[in-house]
């Protein structure tokens, strides 16, 4: 079992994952993880590269057309 500590910073609370956990998950700084709710807690999984690219593309689209989306939502 690995004990993790919550730390405040950047106006919120963060969780620092030890190097051995990052290696086991196959991720590094800047990669995306998902937290899946289970009956026993949460399961952390790496997002596949293709999905991460889609997430980034979606963010770029929203940055460019965010105001339009807001007007459409009204």
Features:
single chain; two-stranded antiparallel ribbon; two-stranded antiparallel sheet; 2 helices
Protein model, in words:
This protein has two helices and four strands; from the N terminus they run ββαββα. It is elongated, with a radius of gyration of 16 Å. The model has no long low-confidence stretch (mean pLDDT 88). The chain is α+β, with helices and mostly antiparallel strands and 74 residues long. The strands form two sheets. It has a two-stranded antiparallel sheet.
Beta fraction of the residues?
Answer: 25-35%
On the 0 to 100 scale, the average pLDDT is 88
| Strand neighbour order, sheet with most strands | 1-2
Count of the domains: 1
Following the backbone from N to C, one meets helices and strands in this order, namely: EEHEEH
**From the helix content, strand content and strand pairing, which structural class follows?**
alpha+beta
Provide a count of the helices.
2
What's the shape?
elongated
Helical percentage? 40-55%
Q: How much is the radius of gyration in Å? A: 16 Å
Number of DSSP strand runs: 4
Uncertain regions: pLDDT < 50 for 5+ in a row? Answer: none
Quaternary: single chain
Blueprint (SSEs and pairs):
Layout: E1 6-9, E2 12-15, H1 19-25, E3 33-38, E4 41-46, H2 49-73
Antiparallel strand pairs: 1-2, 3-4
Structure at a glance:
The chain contains two helices and four strands; from the N terminus they run E-E-H-E-E-H. The protein has helices spanning 19-25, 49-73; strands spanning 6-9, 12-15, 33-38, 41-46.
